[in-house]
Amino acid sequence: MKQRALAFLVLGVAVALGVAGCGGSGGGTNPNATISVVIYPGSASIPVSGVINFTAIVYNFTSNGAVDWTASAGTFAGSVFTAPATTGSVTVTATSQEDKSKSATVTVTVGAAQPVTVSPAAVSLAAQGMQTFTAAGTGPFQWTVTATPGADPGTIDQSGNYTAPRTPPPGGTVTISALSAAGSGTATVTILFSAATLSGQYTFSYTGEDAGGFLAVAGTFTVNGSGQITGGVEDVNSFAGGILENQISGGSLAVGPDGRAIAMVTTQQGTITWQVTIISEKHALLVRFDTTATGSGTIDQANPADFSVSAIANNYSFGISGIDSSAAPMAIAGRFLSDGAGTFPVNFAIQDVNDAGTITQADLSLHGNIFSIDGGTGRGTLELISTVPGTGTLTFAFYIIDSTHFKLVEIDNGGAPVLAGDAFSAPNSITLASLNGSYAFTVAGAETGGPYAAGGVFTASGTGTISGGVQDVNEQATTLHLAEKIASSSSTYTLTPNTTSNRILLTLSAGGISFMYAVYPTTTNSFEMVEVDTVVPVSSGMGFLQSSTSVPSGTYGINTTGQTTTGEQDINGSIASAGTTGLTGFLDINETGSIFSNIPLSNSMIVAPASFGRSTLTLATAKPTSASFTFAYYVVDNSTVLIIEMDKVAVTLGTMAKQF
Amino acid sequence: MTSNAVRNLLLSCALVTFLLPFITNAQSAANESAMASPVYDLNKEIKIDGTIDKIETNSSGGPIGTHLLVISAQGVIDVHLGASAAVSAKNLGLSVGQSIHVTGMVASFGGNSVLLARILTTSNHIYMLRNEHGAPVRSLMPRGAASSANSQKGAL
């Protein structure tokens, strides 16, 4: 049997495979949380006398990350469990050797014998890990592996040697089958994230706060699939540190089994820490995880084939936000045509600018140019030019994900705004039919006196009417407007200033207030939006076509960001929902420079939606690190959820993205 | 025991007595919010008068942002103004040696007590830095992972 060792290197985490002395890598003290134990696989159904290779992860231990294994029936040899010869349920327990009051249990369902006995009958395996399976009986055996249709199940040869995929498939498991003349037998493999999940070139961005205030960063890095960051570059715009093109010379990526990872990124300005929650080999959520800076953003697999001016040939809807030259909040949404030759021609562009409540709607003076694109890194520079007061000529570094999506961070010196955001490919023309269906959205910004966030769902007819919806508003963590009805009678959307200007003016009426947004659809059933009324000074965000209203089910990466009593709070995590009431998992938090890792959820709840795919969830953590966050959530589809904090603790919002 | 020693002891006792509510508040705040953001409670507010001894932007013992070390009758107090550029010492016109009055709540960060300033009063300005729930008044909501839902599509 050959098995690639699991290499989980997250601080304070050990992989416990045996009874003693098998603590594995990691170590260290995390005073912010008590010991937690997680068992993989988290459940199993095997035949009588079947074998399971268990793995236990111990979080937040001080010196001993090993566990003791026990079972209500059957036997253990190290971490290898052999089921009893009778059917029934068996409870398996892994108990921390350091703190014997901390343990985890899983239920093993022992069923009837199969015609062919495959061993091990259940095992957890790191992404790209290898496991040899054996079959008892008379061969030859035909080996196959299956997963949810459309997902990569990994590969298996006809000797039973299996290699796991880079990303856990939906459900997190694959099925190994051995077929012979006597019949068949199966085994279940639980796929865990590993350093192998992220391999290749990735584009990232985040915004947040450092010692001087607003911080905006975008960049690219390359990782080799073994946890080594080999290079990259980022553009940083910081009130504290100024504007900098910062070379990335290396670094490391330590990945835990649930996709939560720590990246130590070596730059010419020193080492930067990110907490990364991997969603798939293509996408991850990012939190700046230093005591000197915090922030939230994303990581996306880049397509170097699109690192050229000619590839950026499309209409693009964009949304950028940040601060103006007076450090007041500012947001812009709009669209432009990139002609593939480096020009964004005038009369083919439009934007709405909200500069601390001074609003310029449907500005047609917008135009611009691409200055350069580095074919190796995907980093380019461009300028957006308009006559809108407070903007003028804005210069950005941009980083290409692919021809449909790139990241922007402004790099103007001295007295200019600091803005950052995204550009997505857009349809050639926008009509009323561009909004047709139910859309979940969130916006964030500021009002007089503090931070502001809103979110909801509305249903558009495709002809300019809104048939209903629901909206939540969090004003400064002081005034909460919960699940207010969006009134169809006074909500509408129009093409304005004319039917060919490719801009939608959306009015959503809730709580007796009409909220007006300039909306710029993308080609992926989403839209950028910026508020253009006088209800609040500034808000902006995105909306997404809703294709599901079902309660989230599965394991999700989560990111939230916003303002608390101390300043910005950024949270990443991995949480599991069985589609019923309970939520489990772990959070990693940067609370304005105070770092909290591996915080387990306790008594966390999710409520199924009654209408519009909107409901609530509560993330609560265990003592002694008690905290509780209550969110409204809006289902986008079976893998995406938008969330907005609805309590009087903080104003935050974010997203949940399905891992498996 | 010399008279100086007695005087010092009495001063120490007086100081401890004077600071007791302050210390109790700090411990209470720490106990209630050992991990996440402190819940701002107007009932736990204190007021201090003092002189700015030092202005820092990279405090190792508290949240990111602008910190004032203030010499007051209660000792040297670490006052956090916030992280926005709008509340930088420069933008608020603050300088070392300046007399200020601060209303805020004490919270614990990694064992260090920090006064989260809600109202800062100088000789010629009154700055509202936080609202009654503690949210920074001039805060900026970050863009965060807003694009994530778009990026996620088709990932699996």
State the main characteristics.
heterodimer, A: 660 residues, mainly beta, Lipocalin, 10-stranded antiparallel sheet, globular, B: 156 residues, alpha+beta, OB fold (Dihydrolipoamide Acetyltransferase, E2P), 5-stranded mixed barrel, 3 helices, disordered N terminus
In short:
With 660 residues, chain A is mainly beta. Helix content of chain A is 0%, strand content 61%. In chain A, the strands form nine sheets. In chain A, strands 30-33-34-35-36-37-28-29-31-32 form a ten-stranded antiparallel beta sheet, with no helix packed on it. In chain A, strands 41-40-39-38-46-45-44-43-42 form a nine-stranded antiparallel beta sheet, with no helix packed on it. An eight-stranded antiparallel beta barrel of chain A has the order 20-21-22-23-24-25-26-27.
Summarize the structure in words:
The complex is a heterodimer of chains A (660) and B (156). By secondary structure, chain A is mainly β. Among the domains of chain A are: 13-192, no CATH class; 196-301, Lipocalin, CATH 2.40.128.120; 554-658, Quinohemoprotein amine dehydrogenase alpha subunit, domain 2 (Lipocalin, Beta Barrel), CATH 2.40.128. Helix content of chain A is 0%, strand content 61%. Chain A is built from no helices and 55 strands. In chain A, the strands form nine sheets. Chain A has a ten-stranded antiparallel β-sheet, with no helix packed on it. Chain A is globular and about 80 Å long. Chain A starts with 12 loop residues before the first strand and ends with a strand. Mean pLDDT of chain A is 93; it is low at 1-11 and 17-29. Chain B is α+β, with helices and mostly antiparallel strands and 156 residues long. Chain B has a single domain (25-137), classed as Nucleic acid-binding proteins (OB fold (Dihydrolipoamide Acetyltransferase, E2P)). Chain B is 25% helix and 33% strand. Chain B has three helices and six strands. Chain B has helices at 3-32, 89-92, 148-152, and strands spanning 45-56, 66-72, 75-82, 99-109, 112-121, 126-128. In chain B, strands 1-2-3-5-4 form a five-stranded mixed barrel. In chain B, β2 and β3 form a beta hairpin. At the A-B interface, β20, β26, β27, β28 and β37 of A face α3 of B.
